[in-house]
């Protein structure tokens, strides 16, 4: 058996096993760790396919940034009482498994009977090597053929950043004092800008420059949405 | 055995399906998010496989874009999950029921 | 003069509209002025038209505009006036004018004075359109229009339930006839390709130039006559006419004596070329006419409402006209139509005067001896009754006599005509009897009412003047019909029925040939006699004149004996023969039969349709559909659980299914 195949089976088995592990774990931190292992295997797969640049990007961005972010969020979501795996209804589990199996069969059929149409491209591994490697080749393609998607992706990322900032704001900008609403604010411990006594020293991020001081004792409710008459909409939740 | 593209496709499909089943079965919203990420990665493998098979770089570029989008999505999505979980004080996806008729 | 034809119907229409819109608000008591002026204008124009046609001996035609042009079907708004139209015009406008004048007095003080004088000129308009129309569809418009106005006027006292019912009955029964008429028009179109009858491409020219199957023409004739049966109150659609007496008396005088009911007769007369080629249709017309005449007369003998007697008399006389048409005595029928218009209008108006004078009492059993109180009414009534009974020398005598003679001498039905003649003679006897029963019971004898409570008075002159005029015309009108079948009236109208003459001669020739072949000498002699040109021998004329006079006087004598001299007590007679009396009093039980056979099943059908089909089926279906959709949405609503996982499951399921379908249907794998 050639080396490549062996390594492929090794890496692949590891990837699948770690994926299964991720899905099966109760503790989300365990799941995250398993997913990291899986991503590393996937990076290996990428290398085997000759996409070295992508493999590195996968590890840096995906594993390094996204998973770390996720782990931070896991820490922030300070849950004592996690939903257990076995409390999912049996019916759902059965249907899910069934669907998975069916999809597997279908994809297997698809893979088995697939045909390729169209002319093969020109970027053979030799041509890529000629240009100077995978990174240079991708760079060329990215800035010529895929320039527009590239720009759009940068916009997407910008929007993502903006969204994150907006969600993280302690207060909404531009509200006059009289119409203070509670917003979803990630800068505060409970996600709302509830009143904290001044002497505890808890100062909040105050982008608008206005003082956050509220008269003590005023409790406000979290308003997720208002109807057109500016009345808060009661939203169903398990614990309000 | 010769290492043809089909093997890679099969691996990718397996990972995708595992992720899908995770989405359908798990109730912890963060784990569901993880499974979605897994699905995205699996699709990336498929793209790269095809790219290799047809001797183009289009698939790799697309996989790159999908990684970028996943990053942006992670930022915003996780913020949302955090907010919702603070509101409903749980991470059970069955508690996020505001859209019920 | 051609161009002014349109004014004749237009003036009353304008008056009607004006009264309806303007007078109603601003001067409701003066509405009659416009109506009378407009009808007077139409009358004068009709006289001018008559004069012109008389001088030129040719018809007038005014084409107004094209009404319908759809493929091959063309209907125009056009006015056509030949001699027949001219006669009808003068008669209609004349009687209308007198009725309008009379109504001013009769309807005085009525709350909706203006309404009466809105509908009455409207009626005149539609009747004039009917008479002036140059194609069958326009006649139909006028036909329906007079039906509508009849409904409006019969139901004039709309607050009375019986009036509303009578109006509905009139309209609906008319409608039944109109179905036949409408079908007839359609059949005319499909047969001849046109529905106009004037000009070179009219129905009648086509008829004379072409060869059409007798069956088709018979069908057309019968269908057209169906309309006439409804409109002219022939059996079996006569039931609306007596009930129509719910309307004010001038309405009865105008519509149900002189004009609307004559529309059917006019229609058949106008279509005479068709009928002349369809002898079977003519026979039907004659038989129905004779039967109606007989039936109407018998019922009139026992009615106690003064207007009902006159109404049934109208039915009977219309039967006479139909009989005349049916036996081919066309001009005679029109002659009787005009004469009848005059004396029947006089009778109705006279009844109105009596009712008015007796303070709305209509039962003749409560009258008596009124000739002392209302002399003018009495004398005019008497004259009109004599005319109705067919006594020499009044108009009714000449016309009725001609009908009888025509039936006898009919070249269409040489033998069948005898039976019809007998029926006509018997009916003449009965007519005299009931007419004078009415006269005697109303005007003679001792008053059967409390003279201290009711003080009958003569009507105001605005009401008696038309009576006098009509009576006078009745007296002298006979002159235009003298000598019988050859008088000025007949000569005037001959061109209209010229084609009829030709065909008649053809039929005579045919009959003669057949009879010769059959070898019957009597018929040959008769045919030879007719070959001289449809002039009946003087002997026959005089014989029948004498016979009918005897019968008329005999009828008068009989009623005198019964009601004045009490030789035969009518009350005892009724008690002894309850079956016969009730049969006649209940109008031959026709209304009861209709009620049971037609009205009751229709109502049950309507109830069924309403409760079962409309409520359960249609409403149920609609509501069911709505409810079904509602239930469907409720069912679909359960899909929206709000649970993200369910949605994800649905997506995954969908994906699997679509891929599966793709493989099954499109992939080359399983083909």
Structure, described:
The complex is a heterotrimer of chains A (240), B (101) and C (671). Chain A is 55% helix and 0% strand. With 240 residues, chain A is mainly α. In chain A, helix 1 (3-24) packs antiparallel against helix 2 and helix 2 (28-48) runs antiparallel to helix 3. Chain B has a single domain (29-100), classed as Orthogonal Bundle (Helix Hairpins), CATH 1.10.287. Chain B is elongated and about 50 Å long. With 101 residues, chain B is mainly alpha-helical. With 671 residues, chain C is mostly helical. Chain C has helices at 7-23, 31-56, 83-106, 113-132, 136-154, 161-192, 203-209, 214-231, 240-243, 249-258, 260-270, 272-276, 279-300, 306-326, 330-357, 375-389, 395-408, 416-443, 461-477, 488-493, 498-518, 521-531, 538-564, 570-576, 578-585, 590-637, 644-666, and strands at residues 60-70, 73-81. The N and C termini of chain C lie far apart (88 Å). The model of chain C is unreliable at 515-534 (pLDDT under 50). Chains A and B meet through helix 1, helix 2, helix 3, helix 4 and helix 6 of A and helix 1, helix 2 and helix 3 of B.
Number of helices of chain B: 3
C-alpha Rg of chain C, in Å?
31 Å
- Oligomeric state as shown: heterotrimer
Uncertain stretches of chain C: 515-534
Beta strand % of chain C: under 5%
Strand segment tally of chain C: 2
Helix content of chain C: over 70%
Helix segment count of chain C? 27
Order of helices and strands of chain B: HHH
Element string of chain C (H = helix, E = strand): HHEEHHHHHHHHHHHHHHHHHHHHHHHHH
Q: Looking across the biggest beta sheet of chain C, what order are the strands in?
A: 1-2
Number of strands of chain B: 0
How far apart, in Å, are the first and last alpha carbons of chain C? Answer: 88 Å
Largest two-chain interface: A-B, 98 and 79 residues
Q: From the alpha-carbon coordinates, what is the Rg of chain B to the nearest angstrom? A: 17 Å
What fold name stands as the CATH topology of chain B? Helix Hairpins
């Amino acid at each position: 058996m050639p080396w490549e195949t062996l390594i492929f089976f090794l890496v692949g088995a590891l990837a699948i096993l770690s994926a299964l592990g991720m899905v099966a774990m109760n503790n989300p931190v365990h799941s995250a760790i398993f997913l990291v292992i899986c991503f590393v295997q996937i990076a290996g797969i990428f290398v085997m396919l000759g996409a070295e640049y992508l493999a590195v990007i996968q590890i840096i961005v995906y594993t390094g940034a996204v998973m770390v972010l996720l782990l931070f969020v896991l820490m922030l979501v300070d849950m004592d009482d996690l939903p257990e795996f076995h409390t999912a209804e049996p019916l759902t589990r059965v249907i899910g498994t069934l669907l998975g199996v069916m999809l597997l069969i279908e994809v297997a059929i698809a893979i088995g009977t697939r045909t390729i149409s169209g002319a093969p491209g020109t970027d053979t591994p030799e041509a890529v090597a000629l240009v100077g490697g995978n990174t240079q080749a991708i760079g060329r393609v990215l800035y010529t053929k895929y320039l527009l998607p590239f720009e759009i992706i940068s916009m997407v990322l910008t929007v993502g950043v903006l969204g994150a900032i907006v969600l993280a704001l302690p207060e909404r900008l531009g509200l006059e004092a009289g119409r203070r609403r509670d917003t979803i604010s990630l800068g505060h411990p409970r996600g709302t800008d509830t009143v904290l006594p001044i002497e505890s020293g808890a100062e909040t991020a105050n982008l608008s420059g206005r003082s956050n001081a509220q008269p003590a004792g005023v409790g406000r409710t979290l308003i997720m949405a208002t109807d057109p008459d500016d009345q808060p909409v009661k939203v169903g939740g398990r614990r309000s | 055995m010769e290492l043809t593209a089909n093997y890679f496709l099969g691996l990718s499909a397996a990972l995708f399906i595992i992720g899908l089943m995770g989405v359908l079965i798990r109730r912890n919203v963060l784990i569901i998010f993880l499974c979605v990420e897994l699905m995205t990665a699996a699709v990336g493998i498929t793209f790269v496989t095809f790219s290799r098979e047809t001797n183009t770089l289009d698939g790799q570029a697309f996989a790159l874009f999908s990684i970028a989008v996943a990053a942006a999505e992670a930022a915003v999505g996780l913020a949302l999950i955090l907010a919702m979980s603070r509101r409903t004080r749980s991470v059970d996806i069955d508690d996020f029921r505001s859209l019920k008729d | 003069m051609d161009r002014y034809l349109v004014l004749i119907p237009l003036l009353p229409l304008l008056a009607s509209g004006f009264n309806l819109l303007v007078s109603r608000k601003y001067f409701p008591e003066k509405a009659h002025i416009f109506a009378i002026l407009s009808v007077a204008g139409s009358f004068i124009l009709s006289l001018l038209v008559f004069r012109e046609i008389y001088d030129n001996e040719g018809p007038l035609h005014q084409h107004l505009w094209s009404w319908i042009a759809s493929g091959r079907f063309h209907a125009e708004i056009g006015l056509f006036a030949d001699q027949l139209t001219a006669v009808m015009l003068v008669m209609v406008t004349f009687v209308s004018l007198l009725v309008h004048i009379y109504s001013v007095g009769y309807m005085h003080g009525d709350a909706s004075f203006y309404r009466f004088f809105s509908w009455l000129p409207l009626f005149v308009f539609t009747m004039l359109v009917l008479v002036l129309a140059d194609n069958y569809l326009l006649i139909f418009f006028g036909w329906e229009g007079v039906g509508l106005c009849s409904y409006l006027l019969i139901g004039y006292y709309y607050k009375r339930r019986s009036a509303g019912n009578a109006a509905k009955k009139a309209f609906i029964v008319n409608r039944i006839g109109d179905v036949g008429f409408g079908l007839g028009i359609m059949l005319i179109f499909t047969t001849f390709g046109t529905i106009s009858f004037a000009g070179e491409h009219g129905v009648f020219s086509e008829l004379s130039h072409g060869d059409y199957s007798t069956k088709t023409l018979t069908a057309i004739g019968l269908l057209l006559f169906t309309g006439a049966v409804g409109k002219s109150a022939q059996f079996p659609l006569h039931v609306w006419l007596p009930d129509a007496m719910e309307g004010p008396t001038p309405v009865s005088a105008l519509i149900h004596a002189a004009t609307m009911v004559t529309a059917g007769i006019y229609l058949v007369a106008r279509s005479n070329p068709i009928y002349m080629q369809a002898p079977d249709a003519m026979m039907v017309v004659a038989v129905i006419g004779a039967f109606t005449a007989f039936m109407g007369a018998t019922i009139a003998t026992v009615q106690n409402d003064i207007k009902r007697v006159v109404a049934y008399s109208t039915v009977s006389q219309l039967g006479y006209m139909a009989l005349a048409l049916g036996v081919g005595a066309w001009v005679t029928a029109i002659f009787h139509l005009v004469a009848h218009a005059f004396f029947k209008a006089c009778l109705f108006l006279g009844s109105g005067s009596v009712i008015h004078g007796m303070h709305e009492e209509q039962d003749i059993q409560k009258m008596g001896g009124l000739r002392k109180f209302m002399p003018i009414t009495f004398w005019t009534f008497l004259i009109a009754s004599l005319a109705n009974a067919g006594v020499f020398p009044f108009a009714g005598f000449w016309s009725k006599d001609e009908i009888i003679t025509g039936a006898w001498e009919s070249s269409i039905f040489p033998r069948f005509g005898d039976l019809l003649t007998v029926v006509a003679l018997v009916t003449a006897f009965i007519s005299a009897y009931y007419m004078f029963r009415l006269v005697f019971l109303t005007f003679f004898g001792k008053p059967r009412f409390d003279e201290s409570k009711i003080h009958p008075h003569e009507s105001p002159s605005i009401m008696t003047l038309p009576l006098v005029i009509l009576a006078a015309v009745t007296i002298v009108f006979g002159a235009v019909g003298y000598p019988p079948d050859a008088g000025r009236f007949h000569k005037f109208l001959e061109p209209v029925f010229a084609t009829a003459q030709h065909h008649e001669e053809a039929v005579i020739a045919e009959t003669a040939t057949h009879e010769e072949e059959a070898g019957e000498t009597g018929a040959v002699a008769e045919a030879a006699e007719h070959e001289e040109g449809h002039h009946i021998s003087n002997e026959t004329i005089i014989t029948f004149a004498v016979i009918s006079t005897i019968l008329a006087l005999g009828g008068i004598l009989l009623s005198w004996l019964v009601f004045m001299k009490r030789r035969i007590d009518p009350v005892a007679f009724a008690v002894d023969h309850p079956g016969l009396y009730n049969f006649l009093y209940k109008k031959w039980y026709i209304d009861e039969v209709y009620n049971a056979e037609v009205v009751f099943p229709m109502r049950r059908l309507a109830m069924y349709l309403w409760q079962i089909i409309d409520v359960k089926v249609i409403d149920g279906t609609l509501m069911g559909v709505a409810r079904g959709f509602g239930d469907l949405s409720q069912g679909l609503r359960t899909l929206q659980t709000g649970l993200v996982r369910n949605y994800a499951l649905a997506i995954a399921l969908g994906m699997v299914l679509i891929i599966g379908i793709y493989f099954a249907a499109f992939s080359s794998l399983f083909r």
